[in-house]
Target: inosine/xanthosine triphosphatase
Amino acid sequence: MKIIVGSTNQVKVTAVKEVLEPIGQEVMGTNVPSGVSNQPFSDAETVAGASNRAQACLKFGEIGIGLEAGVEYLNEQLYLVNWGVLKTQDGQTFYAGGTRLPLPTELIAPLEAGAELGDVIDGYSKRQNVRSNEGAIGILTADFFNRKDNFSHIVRLLWGQYTYAQQCCRK
Ligand SMILES: O=P(O)(O)OP(=O)(O)OP(=O)(O)OC[C@H]1O[C@@H](n2cnc3c(O)ncnc32)[C@H](O)[C@@H]1O
Ligand SMILES: [Mg+2]
Model:
């Protein structure tokens, strides 16, 4: 089956490939619009971006996977959040959230002012292109859990639900 990931960010595409290629699926990344802000500011906006990406991917393959990152407040603490949506040509949709991690207080003001986390975390960590490598989550956890780990966790949850649905409906 041809599975399309709605991004060309190597972290997202590699995460999907590492989970699905060993079980015989063909995975390709392509640039599609998220239809939401470059920096989604709630779980709802983040999951909408993942869903829009998954839907747009269905033009190119049997299954579309959208992965989107955002930020969300809980008790005045801003958290990094991630969502994934898997859609099939025959109208099935599956959702899964990734883990969430508190962001340092000094990152909040620039994000509130409209900066993207990808740019803010580069300055904070004095590294370049963190978003396509270890990610903010990799920086903030000393690389014990990186951005690819986060997305592959989401992909396993999505594929697991999709697989369960196929098994359940054949009975
Ligand atoms: O090409 P796309 O697929 O858009 O990849 P992206 O890295 O921009 O990823 P998202 O759009 O899903 O992320 C939304 C925003 O959050 C930023 N972001 C989210 N998680 C991040 C992380 O772990 N490290 C760095 N930036 C992150 C990212 O730079 C964007 O500004
Ligand atoms: Mg983006």
